[in-house]
Amino acid sequence: MASENGLTKADILSTVQGYSRDYRAGGDNSALERKFERDKDAVRELGIPLETIDSPDRPGDNTALRYLIPKRLYDLPSDIEFSPQEIGLLALAAAVWREGSLSDDSRRALLKLSSRGIEASEPLVGYAPRIRVREAAFAPLQAAQTAKIVVSFPYLKPGESTPRRRTVLPLALVQHEGRWHLYAQDIDAGATRTFLLSRIVATVVQRPDVAAPEIDTTGAVERSQAELAAVSLRNRAVIETRPETDAAMRLGRRAASVENDGARVVLHFTDLDILADELAGYGPEVLVHEPPALRAAVHRRLLQVAAQHASAATRQEGADRG
To answer: Are residues 196 and 179 in contact, defined by beta-carbon separation less than 8 angstroms?
Structure first.
């Protein structure tokens, strides 16, 4: 960054801290050169623009290539400044992530911000919530989204006994109602689709053999969130809860409206099967009034639980008699 015309590899190896100590003028520097090649990739992964410039008097000669980090591309725009309070808030936002590559990305962002020379406000640096990603599919999907690579995975929809392989180009990963969703271009359908990550039942596989369609990803997160919010707004559930129960407390917090002194709640939901799973878990604490499909789904789950318990009781009774 300090050089207007860049530095050759020999210049860097002989003068830059981290290389110069092991550099041998006129000697074998092959190990140091391999380290330099790895470091070039690491610098670019940090989001730092590293340019390679051909020597005007020795074009095509790799030994004469010059490396340059253009200051105009690395620095933040001149009209963007951060106060100590804003740096503190950004630090807290980065600290929220505690999961693999996400944590690495947040650390890299903080490293770049710290180069601005602004210290965070101490009162802001304290407790921060944590976001974890439990779905194994998240990391490979994020990597494919960044690299704009088509992937495929087996996806099991509710009511189906076997998963179907989907081939998609990931466009955005969004969290909605506490769950991670993939917004992607479905290659076979030729249209965007949203997938729940918890329904991806096996390994996500990259498909370099499938050409990625040219799609403008600008605003993909916002479009996905808007579509999910629209689905949630259309779906309305009316549920009766027993007073002073876990169901009454938890569902009441999320209710769009509450009636009958809190005993009857109206919820909006995105996925009927996910809500049915949750409501069945409350057992006799809830009674579903609407919609009929949700009521039937909860009823089926309760019948399955009753049948499993009856079967287990029968086996135990037979073992006791034996």
So the answer is: yes
In a domain, 296, yes or no: yes
Domain shared by 119 and 159, yes or no:
no
- The Cβ of residue 141 has, within 10 Å, a number of other Cβ atoms equal to 24
Which domain range does residue 265 map to? Answer: 235-312
Amino acid at residue number 313: A
Which tokens go with 21? 């100590």
Q: How does pLDDT run across 122-177, given as a tens digit for each residue?
A: 554 455 566 556 678 998 998 899 889 999 999 998 878 899 999 999 999 998 88
Across 120-138, b (16+ Cβ under 10 Å) vs e yields: beeebeeeeeeeebebebb
Q: Map residue 99 onto helix, strand or coil.
A: coil
Phi-psi region of 195 (alpha: psi -120 to 50; beta: other; left: phi over 0): beta
290 in Cβ contact with 237 (< 8 Å): yes
Q: Is residue 165 part of a domain?
A: yes
Phi then psi for residue 239, to 5 deg, are: -130, 135
- Tokens linked to 160: 């189906």
pTM metric for this prediction:
0.59
Dist. CA 96–CA 102, nearest whole Å: 10
Label each residue of 170-226 as H, E or C. EEEEEEECCEEEEEEEECCCCEEEEEEHHHECCCCEECCCCCCCCCCCCCHHHHHHH
The amino acid at residue 205 is V
Domain stop point among 217, 251, 275: 217
Burial class (CB in 10 A: 0-12, 13-18, 19+), 22: exposed
Give the residues across from 143 on adjacent strands.
Answer: none
Closest CA to 134 of 188, 178, 194: 178
Beta bridge partners of 199: none
What domain count does the chain have? 4
